[in-house]
Structure formats: C-alpha cells, structure tokens
Amino acid sequence: MLGYPAHFGQIECLKLAASPLFSDKRLGYLGTMLLLDENQEVLTLLTNSLKNDLNHSNMYIVGLALCTLGNIASAEMSRDLCSEVEKLLGSSNMYIKKKAALCAIRIIRKVPDLQENFVQRASSLLNDRNHGVLLSGITLITEMCVASHETLLHFRKAVPVLVRHLKNLVSAGFSAEHDVTGVTDPFLQIKIIRLLRILGKDHVESSEAMNDILAQVATNTESSKNVGNSILYETVLTIMETPSDNALRVLAINILGKFLSNRDNNIRYVALTTLNKSISLDINAVQRHRNIILDCLRDADISIRRRALELSFSLINESNVRVLTRELLAFLEVADNEFKPSMTTKICLAAERFAPNKRWHIDTVLRVLKLAGNYVREEMLAAFIRLVTQTSELHGYTVQKLYASLKSDISQDSLTLSGVWVIGEYGDILVRGGNYEEEELATEVTESDVIDLLESILAGPFANQVLREYIITALMKLTSRFSTATSSERVKQLLAKFTTSIEVEIQQRAVEFTNLFQYDDIRPAVLERMPVMEVKETVIAGERLNSPASGSSGPQASAAAGPSDQDLLLDLMGIGTGGGTTNAQISAGAPSTAGSGQANNVDLLADLFGGSNISSPPTTSKPSAAAVNDLFGGLGSNSSSPPPAPVASNANILDLLGGGMATSTPATSPPAAAVAAAAGARPASANSNASSQNSSSQKFYPVYSKQGLAIAFTPQRDSTNPNVVNILTTFRNEESTSGGTIKDVQFHAAVTKTQQLQMRPASANEVAPGSNVTQVLKIANPQKTPIRLRLKIVYTTPNHGAVSDFAEFAGFPEGAY
Questions:
Q1: CA atoms within 13 A on the CB side of 796
Q2: Of 97, 119, 147, which one is at a domain's C-terminal end?
Q3: Residue 40 near residue 49, CB atoms below 8 Å
Q4: Where's the GAE domain (predicted)?
Q5: Does residue 403 sit in the same domain as residue 479?
Q6: Radius of gyration from C-alpha coordinates of the chain
Q7: Sign of CA dihedral 578, 580, 582, 588
Q8: Domains identified in the chain, total number
Q9: Counting Cβ atoms within 10 Å, is residue 604 exposed (0-12), middle (13-18) or buried (19+)?
C-alpha cells in the first residue's frame, strides 16, 4: 500500500481468515479485500475458508464471508460457491439475505450462465417486508433483467407486486426509520421506478399497469427538496421510455420545465439533457417551455448554455422560426467563440429549411455573416452564394445590402468574400440603384464608389490571398458591367500592379486578365454572369443542406433543383431540349420521356466532336467548367479531386465539358434502386429483392448475421463527388431462424472523426420472411481514410423477442469502391 509491496501480508491475512476467533476473521477478511484481487493466484487458497464461513452458525461471520466474496470473487470462486450463496438467499435472517443478494450480483457479473440459479430465490425477495432485503432484491433483479431478455420476460409478471410496493411507499405516513427529509425511503422508491422502466419498455400491458402509480408519484412528490427531485427525475425517465399515455408524457415534460426554474445548475443541466431526448416524443409539450429554455442561453454556466443551445435548435419549426432565430442571433452576438462555428452552421440550416420567404432567408444569413463571419463554414458561404444566384428578383436588394455592410465593416472574412463575389456579379444593378425602404439602401452608388471600396479592401489589414483572388476577379467582371471607359482604365491599372505579385495564382490571374483587354469582342462573353447554380446536397456532420424539412419520407424532387447537366450543356450550345427527364431519372437509369429530341441531344453533341464513338476523354486539357470555377476563385470547387476515370462515349462528351456525368462501367454499375436512393428517391418496392436487382459482379460485404437478421453492405463511389461513398445496406430476414416477420428495425451507425455520415430513411422498418429492406448511407471521406463503422442494431423477432446488438465493420478491401 502507498507504493510499498504488500505480498508479505497476503498469507498472514489468509491465516487470520481461517482463525476461529471473530476478531481475527474480521481483520483477516478486511486485509484480504484490501491486498488481494481476483487476479491473484493465492486467492484460490481462500475458497475453502469462505465455504466454511458461509455455512457458519454465527450470522456475522457469514456476513463477513459474503462481503468478501462480493468484493473479490473470481469466476472460479463464483462457480465453486454459487450453491452456498443461493441457499443463503432463502435464509430467514434479514441480515444474511440482503448481503447474499448483493453477493449474487457479483457472481452473475463474473459468470452470467449462473443467473438462472438465482431467478426463483430473487422472486421470493419481492414479497419481503424488510426494506433492506427488498432494496437489495430489486437491485439483483434489475441486474438480471438488464443482462438477459428471458429473465426480463419472466419478471414482467412481477409488475403488479412492484406497483403495490411503490403505492405503499407513496401513501405511507411518517416513518422515522425510513424518512429522508419528509420522503419515505427514497432509495427504495428510485430502485422500484428504475426496475419498472426496464420491465415496461416496449411492453404496453406492463406500461398500462404502472401508469396510475407513476402519475400519483409525479403529482404527490415534493419538489422543493433534492430527494423529491431525484424521484421525480426517475419517474420522468420511466414515463418517457415506456409506451405511456400522452397526458402522462405532458406531465413528465412539465416536471422537466419546473426543473429549469431550479437554482441548482445540476438539476437544470439534467432537465435540458432529458428534454433534448424527449423532443422527438412530444415536441409541442416541449415548445410550451420555450421561453425558459431561451433564458438558459444567458446562464453563467457554459454547460447550461451549450445544452440550452442544442435544445433551442431542435425546437425550430415553420411557426416559430422568426422568433427563435431572432433570439439565437442575439445570443450569437455575445456567445463565446467556441459556440460560433456550430451556431452559424445551424442557424443557416434552420433558415434554409424553414424560411418563410427568400428575403427573410437572405437577411438572416447576412446577419450571421455580420456577427460571426470569421466562423462561417465554407459550405454555408457556398450555399448563400447559391441562394443569391437563384433569387433573381432580389439581386438589387442583396447587392446593396452587402455593399452597405462592407462600407461599415470588412473584418468579417465570409461577409467580405460573399460581398465581393456578389458585387462582381451584379455591380451594374448596384449602380443603377432601386427603390427600397431601408435608409442604408437609399444612398446613390457610383462606379467610382464601387471600385474605391474594392481597392480599400485590397489595401486593408484583413486581405489574404483568397480575398485578393476574389477582388481581382470581381474587378475584371465589373469592366463588362460598367459603361464608362474610366472605370475600365482604373481596373487595368490596378491589375497591372499584381502582374509581378509573388503569389503565383494572383500573378497568373492578373496577367491573363490584362491580356484579355486586347480582345474586346469576346471579353463581355467571357465575363458574363454565372448561370443559376444548381441545388446540391451538402453533408455537414450529419446535417443535410438544401433539403426539405426532416421527417419527409417521400421522393426528393430532383426536377425542382434545376435543369440536368445535359440540359445545361445543350443550352450553352444553343440546342433546344425536350425536357422531361429529371436528374434522378438519369442517375437511376430511367428511360427518357422527352421524345426523339431529348433522345438525340447527346448524339448531336457527339457529332460536334467528330462522331459518336469517342474512345477516351482528353486527359491533357482542363474542362471548361473547371476553368470557369477557377476564374471565380474556386468558389465551391474542389481542386484536389482526382480526374474522372475513362467512361462510356456519351459520358466522355459530357465530361469533356465538365458536366460531371461520369458513370461506372456496366460490369460494376450499382442497382437502380441503390442509385435512386442515393439520389434521394425511394425504391419502387419497400421489400425489393436486392439479389435480383444487382448485377452479377455486384459485391456484398457481410456485416451482421444473428437471430435471423442478416445485414450486408454494397459500396459505390458517388458519381457527383469523388469524396463521397454511397453504401447500400441490405437487411434480409432468414425465416428459419427468426420465426417470422422482423419488426421495429432500427439501424444506427457512427464513423471516425475524419469522416461524416448521412443516413437516408430505410425503405421499411419491417422485414418479411425471405425479403429484403434497403437503406443508403452516404459517407463524406475527403481524407480518403479507411472506412470504419460502429453499428447498433435494434429489432424484434418472434423467436427471440426484442434484440439490441452492437457490431463493428472495417471490411472494405482496397479498391472496393
């Protein structure tokens, strides 16, 4: 002890434990518990002494032996002495019974197979009137129910007995022996409520039997003392985790609302955490406590603020988005820097999903950029630019708001980047002006004012290389937007200063733009406005950007996102399109419905390049779409993406123009249902047979196979983003083992820190015998690290009841996707 070797005292302790004197035994057993553990070989010498003392006539010696066994028992000792402990559970002595129950817990943990030996004895403990025996017996039963589903089914018959005990405790008068600040035996009440929660989970009959007593506990327990709050908290958890009545759930959430008014930060923290878990059960009941939750944002404790912030974002919906966003923006203004990155992302996502109109959406993101522009993620900035391009009716309003913002503050990086980009695109609208009610937009802006602003940003202390690239490009764009020669000459002189810049990218742009002044006939066409950007899905830490509100399970409306890649290319070349085929249909291999015009458009493109059979795409020239992206400072592009692999002829033509229509070869193409699901559409059949849809070369990687449920993964590299892997998850019901339909299938997954995961809804939550259910996982893996998944699978089968299992998967070989 205290760092000194104590092995010399081990044998002495064993000698004292074997002594007939009680004082020697007590000292010996105490020393044994301190100096020995289950890994010591000398412990085997103690087994015989323990066996003798467990059968001793003196109850205190029996108690010493049980206490020692319960603290240091190994698996071998547990097997050897299990029968003695089982016999002592049936003793008439209360002192021995409660110690034997606690000792049995240690034995069950060490050797789970011995659990069945204690089931009958533990059942008899529930009928004991002694609170100590009842407390230790319920603790033993709880341990067994958690460890074994069969034991759980057995003890569900004891729910009425537990309810009766709890009712007696609640309605009992004052008892000095068990009273704790006016509450009768709170420890026993909590143990009973916790066991009821385990027994009533996913079982309607048991839940109905305990509803009345839970309501009685919730309404009669005193909440002014911490003892009462602990009972109320366990009651709330039991109500939430069992199929209780709606009225009871509302009562439980109201109790948590009262906890938020408590002065104790621990109680408030627990209430906020529990409300976060309860919001999926009854969001309307939680909404009633919105004001007090928002008050918690101003709490001095940072952990309280963090939990309140998470809960506030969960409460946002179409009806309250204005109010909650206003409060969150007010908090963003004074929030700690560590909150700002996640807050800006979540506010932008909430505005995207629930915005009442486009103008409010733009104003909200602009407010975020003003308050915390240095903490806005790149994806949010790209989404804002995309929103501006899609909202043509507000171009004048947006560009004037951004101009006014930059005049007052250029310290926020994302605000400056977005402002420069928008001014470069819509500078002519800014100069023309418009009728707006805001005073800040009423000022007349000249071409010289705009160039002065951009020049001042270049000379300012916050200009970095990326910002300089944006400004140079914006200035060049403005030469085709502004009408006076003076403006073009000023821009030309500014660009000339950067032709000798030590930053290679800036020098190259400046030289190329300067040379472009020699070609006034094509310069306006080269510098024309960017086309409307397509709505693309962005995976951000499990969140979905530019998607409908969560909860919608229907097909994603791909057509609403804009024209397909083929249509954009054809429009560029002045070739009309027949319309009708959406992006989802193309990617899923659906036949075109546009008629002969649409069917022949790709052939027309092929003819432009000298025939329809092009063997391979050019690998030396840069696609024009990528060149346009570079022209604008790489906004939304990924310069590190690998070049696409050689593909079929039609795809070659589209890929030549940067259309991103590359597809896999037929031998490795994914099934139609998988691609449709990856594109956001649900498979045609909820229980489709994956084996019939897959091609012969489609590889399945087994993940899990237990209790009649088999799960397999099929990986596929995303065709639109080389950093994303789509994994088709197939669930199959093996009827011979499961015994019938597998119900309530829940599939949870987690990835490593370098990856981000998005899970699409499964095609169904039940798997009929012999059929399949599918679900698509999208994993963003920009660092190309090996994919490792930790899985939690929950389901119910006729033969095995409710099953909750864990698994890990790292089985994709190199080059599997």
A1: 9
A2: 147
A3: no
A4: 696-813
A5: yes
A6: 35
A7: negative
A8: 4
A9: middle
pLDDT-derived band of residue 436, with 50, 70 and 90 as boundaries?
low
Q: What's the token pair of residue 434?
A: 């418009």
254 is a domain residue: no
**Residue 732 in 3-state DSSP?**
strand
From the list 534, 539, 582, 546, the residue with the least C-alpha distance to 776 is 539
Query: Which structure tokens are listed for 194?
Result: 């916790």
Q: DSSP 3-state assignment of 319?
A: coil
- The b/e string for 617-635 (b: 16+ C-beta within 10 A; e otherwise) is beeeeebebeeebbbbbeb
pLDDT value of position 371: 93
415 found inside a domain: yes
Per-residue pLDDT at 245: 87
The neighbour count for residue 123, using CB atoms within 10 Å, is 16
Same domain, 118 and 15: yes
DSSP 698-723: ---EEEEEETTEEEEEEEEE-SS-TT
Asked if 173 and 182 touch (Cβ cutoff 8 Å), the reply is no
**Cα–Cα distance, 673 to 588 (Å, whole number):** 7
Q: Output DSSP code: residue 582.
A: -
Model confidence at 156: pLDDT above 80: yes
**387 and 521 housed in the same domain:** yes
Name the domain boundary from 116, 147, 178.
147
Of the candidates 551, 546, 558, the one whose C-alpha atom is nearest the C-alpha of residue 680 is 558
Task: Give the pLDDT confidence score for residue 236 in this predicted structure.
Answer: 94
Percentage of the chain exceeding pLDDT 70 = 78
Shared domain for 696 and 768, answered yes or no, is yes
Tell me, yes or no, whether 628 and 654 share the same domain. yes
- At 651-688, the pLDDT tens digits run 443 343 334 333 333 333 344 333 333 333 333 333 33
Could you give the C-alpha distances from 669 to 17, 88, 328, 727, 817, in angstroms and in order?
73, 67, 46, 13, 11
Q: How far apart are CA 344 and CA 337, in angstroms?
A: 11
- Report which secondary-structure segment, H or E, holds 789: strand 789-797
- 3-state class of 286 per DSSP? helix
Say how far residue 731 (Cα) sits from the centre of its chain: 22
Q: Name the strand (E) or helix (H) holding 751.
A: none
411-446 burial, b at 16+ Cβ within 10 Å, e below that, comes to ebbbbbbbbbbbbbbbbbbbbeeeeeeeeebeeebe
Residue 799 has a pLDDT of 83
Determine the 3-state secondary structure of 545 from DSSP. Answer: strand
What pLDDT does residue 1 have?
58
Give 575-608 pLDDT, tens digit per residue: 443 333 333 333 333 333 333 344 344 444 444 4
> Which are the contacts of 403, defined by CB distance < 8 A and separation ≥ 6?
419, 423, 430, 445, 450, 453
Q: What is the mean pLDDT of residues 306-316?
A: 92
Mean pLDDT of the chain: 80
Domain that residue 515 falls in: 379-526
Total count of residues recorded for the chain: 817
In a domain, 321, yes or no: no
Please check whether residues 39 and 124 belong to one and the same domain. yes
> Where is average pLDDT lowest: 327-336, 670-679, 794-803?
670-679
**Lowest-confidence range among 245-249, 314-318, 686-690, 787-791?**
686-690
- How far is residue 731's CA from residue 744's CA, in Å, rounded to a whole number? 13
The answer to whether the beta carbons of residues 227 and 179 sit under 8 Å apart is: no
Confidence (pLDDT) at 535: 65
Q: Which residues contact 192 (CB under 8 A, 6 or more apart)?
A: 138, 162, 165, 166, 169
